[in-house]
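pls design
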């Protein structure tokens, strides 16, 4: 308490074993009361008492007090009517803190940095941290490691124990064949050495997949032995596992094993890549097994809970592990799913999700806490009392930046203006605060991206205008003029200034918190691992695809052929008279897409259309309409619906199958029962394909088209991904 107060006030409060003056903050334990609970009250003017029901209660009571204090330079105040007694509603409240190369910051943190971060999580109610063993699905080393992984693991276990927090280990079963006794013996020795070294372990969680891929009967046999291994060194530690990535067949085998209710298993973890919903999991599990939640709070797409209504320009450039404060979304996910569980340890890949961690920690203590109050306390404690209100509003504004079509979202520029005003008024200490730097980086990046999108959209329109002159000036002249437009630098002076600012803030974040926002500059492990500085200039229009078409046009042997190819470009989205076109990944061009249940009922998008992203970028020759797509996860259908069709007409459908799972077959059915095509591979390279619609499908004047991937698959749940759909009228019957 004294250290955190001094950081914010410059007031050094003496630490004594007894209160002997008119002003004091007294911390101690009392007898009785719920576990981890506390009482905090102002006993007299200038005297505050914090009484914990146990050691953790003292820690959490001290944290609560720190969040209520009003602190500034040479100023420390507390409300005279402060009087609170509280205890947590959810018993497991944790976060994964993986010291490994894959993360966008953690691998560079020193022991003091880890202690500070773990302390800060405890201040907001966290009671568990989860570690990752030296061998996982990562590189064995990182250029940023200040200590070898096992040594840092030991230190983090020690720190957690000193703060009275639980320690869990996420421990993947990586070896290929656990039916082999020699492999099992190797694993027992390897894991046992980790168990022996750590001063505290309360739980081990083994994922069924991603990484690892072991049939349930062999995995469960291994974990029974590993439980005995674990308890040699930590007798009260518990073993948890998840069916992550299991196929339907493996899920049924696993449920069959659990019916025997093995005593060594403490419970089941529900996280990403679980092919059945959480309520169904709870219903099918024996009642003796608790469920521990493992929500992905760190990824923005290709994830358990993707950002909703997210423009593909963000996905393309800011990427999967960008700075992602999503307080309202995280609160909605928490409140929908935690009632089925006994607690959670969130999935994190770095400090990019810091706001989300605090939201989960605070809601874990009291699920009824308004998320606005959580962000207000976050802002007051981490940013400062004088800027707290403005910063809290800015956090919610950043979440709104990512909602809906970026081209139409003028609020993105307002968000940056608000943060720029905060920066103008900020003290040097606040400017050096990594949490403020993160928010300013995101606001600047968002505004830069919108500025580029506006310019590059207009650039493409001008290029298409030049192509449209082909019949008047000749095909080759038109192509040359269009290409000249596309090759020009479309950035405005403001765009250049914003880009420079983003690079400045990236450097500041590397210096303050070791965020690795670039591979060449900061030796991040990869662009997709949060290094979005390297994606800042990726093309946002169809320049790459158009230049490939221009090469084809130039190679054509006749003017007529060249003009036909130009017409195909100009009329790409034209379905002809009486037809319809949908760019399913573009929220401005998807009028026939059926949305499904919606985010608040279905944040995993099992029965809700999700704006997804593909495996190649526009700079690699894909159209933007191929990079973005609509998809539904696992076995749910993706649907489009048409009305007011001509019952006397014939129709055909043209469709572009895209996404990041091109190897997964897809099926198309009309009106729930008429098969347009069976499960078939997606064309590679990606290109539109056409199918006739049987006349009986449109005889009633309406049509529903429904896509699915093969049922029962394991893995990520992705694969039912469609980029574009044309419904074209061909003739009258």
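designed seq:
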């Amino acid at each position: 308490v004294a250290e955190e107060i001094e950081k914010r006030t410059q007031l050094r409060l003496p630490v004594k074993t007894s209160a002997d003056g008119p002003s004091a903050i007294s911390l101690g334990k009392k007898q009785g009361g719920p576990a981890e609970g506390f009482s905090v009250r102002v006993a007299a003017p200038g005297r505050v008492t914090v009484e914990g029901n146990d050691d953790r209660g003292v820690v959490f009571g001290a944290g609560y007090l720190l969040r209520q204090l009003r602190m500034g330079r040479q100023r420390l105040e507390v409300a005279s009517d402060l009087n609170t007694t509280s205890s947590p509603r959810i018993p497991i409240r944790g976060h994964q803190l993986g010291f490994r190369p894959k993360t966008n910051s953690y691998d560079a943190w020193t022991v003091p940095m880890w202690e500070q971060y773990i302390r800060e999580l405890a201040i907001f109610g966290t009671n568990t941290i989860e570690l990752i063993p030296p061998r996982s699905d990562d590189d064995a080393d990182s250029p940023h490691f200040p200590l070898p992984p096992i040594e840092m693991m030991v230190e983090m276990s020690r720190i957690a124990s000193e703060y009275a927090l639980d320690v869990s280990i996420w421990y993947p079963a990586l070896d290929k064949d656990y039916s082999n006794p020699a492999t099992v013996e190797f694993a027992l020795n390897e894991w046992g050495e980790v168990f022996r070294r750590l001063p505290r372990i309360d739980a081990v969680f083994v994922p069924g997949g991603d990484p690892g891929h072991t049939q349930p009967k062999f995995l469960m046999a291994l974990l029974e032995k590993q439980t005995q291994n674990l308890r040699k060194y930590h007798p009260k530690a518990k073993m948890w596992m998840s069916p992550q990535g299991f196929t339907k067949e493996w899920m049924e085998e696993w449920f069959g094993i659990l019916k025997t209710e093995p005593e060594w298993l403490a419970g089941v973890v529900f996280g990403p890549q679980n092919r059945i919903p959480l309520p169904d999991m709870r219903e099918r599990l024996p009642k003796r097994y608790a469920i521990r939640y493992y929500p992905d709070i760190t990824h923005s797409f290709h994830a358990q809970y993707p950002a909703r209504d997210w423009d593909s320009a963000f996905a393309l450039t800011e990427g999967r592990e960008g700075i992602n404060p999503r307080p309202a979304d995280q609160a909605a996910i928490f409140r929908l799913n935690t009632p089925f569980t006994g607690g959670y340890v969130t999935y994190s890949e770095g400090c990019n999700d810091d706001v989300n961690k605090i939201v989960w920690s605070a809601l874990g203590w009291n699920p009824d806490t308004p998320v606005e109050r959580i962000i207000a306390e976050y802002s007051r404690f981490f940013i400062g009392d004088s800027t707290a209100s403005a910063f809290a509003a800015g956090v919610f504004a950043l979440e709104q930046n990512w909602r809906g079509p970026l081209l139409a979202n003028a609020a993105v520029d307002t968000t940056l203006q608000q943060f720029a005003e905060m920066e103008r008024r900020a003290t040097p200490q606040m400017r050096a605060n990594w949490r403020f730097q993160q928010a300013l980086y995101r606001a600047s990046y968002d505004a830069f991206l919108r500025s580029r999108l506006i310019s590059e959209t207009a650039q493409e329109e001008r290029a298409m205008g030049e192509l449209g002159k082909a019949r008047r000036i000749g095909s080759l002249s038109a192509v040359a003029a269009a290409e000249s437009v596309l090759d020009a630098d479309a950035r405005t002076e403001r765009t250049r200034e914003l880009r420079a600012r983003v690079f400045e803030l990236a450097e500041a974040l590397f210096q303050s918190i070791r965020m690795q926002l670039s591979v060449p500059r900061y030796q991040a492990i990869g662009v997709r691992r949060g290094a979005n500085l390297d994606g800042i200039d990726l093309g946002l229009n169809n320049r790459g695809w158009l230049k490939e078409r221009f090469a084809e046009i130039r190679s054509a042997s006749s003017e007529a052929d060249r003009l036909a190819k130009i017409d195909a470009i100009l009329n790409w989205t034209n379905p002809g008279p009486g037809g319809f076109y949908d760019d399913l990944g573009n929220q401005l061009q998807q009028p026939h897409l059926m949305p499904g249940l919606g985010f608040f009922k279905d944040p995993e998008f099992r029965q809700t259309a999700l704006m997804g992203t593909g495996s190649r970028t526009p700079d690699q020759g894909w159209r933007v309409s191929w990079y973005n797509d609509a998809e539904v996860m696992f076995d749910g259908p993706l649907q489009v619906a048409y009305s007011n069709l001509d019952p006397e007409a014939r129709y055909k459908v043209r469709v572009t199958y895209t996404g990041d799972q091109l190897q997964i077959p897809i099926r198309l059915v009309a009106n729930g029962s008429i098969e347009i095509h069976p499960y078939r591979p997606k064309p590679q390279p990606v290109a539109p394909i056409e199918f006739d619609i049987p006349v009986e499908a449109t005889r009633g004047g309406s049509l529903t088209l429904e896509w699915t991937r093969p049922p029962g698959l394991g893995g990520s749940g992705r694969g039912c991904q469609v980029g574009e759909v044309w419904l074209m009228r061909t003739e009258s019957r």
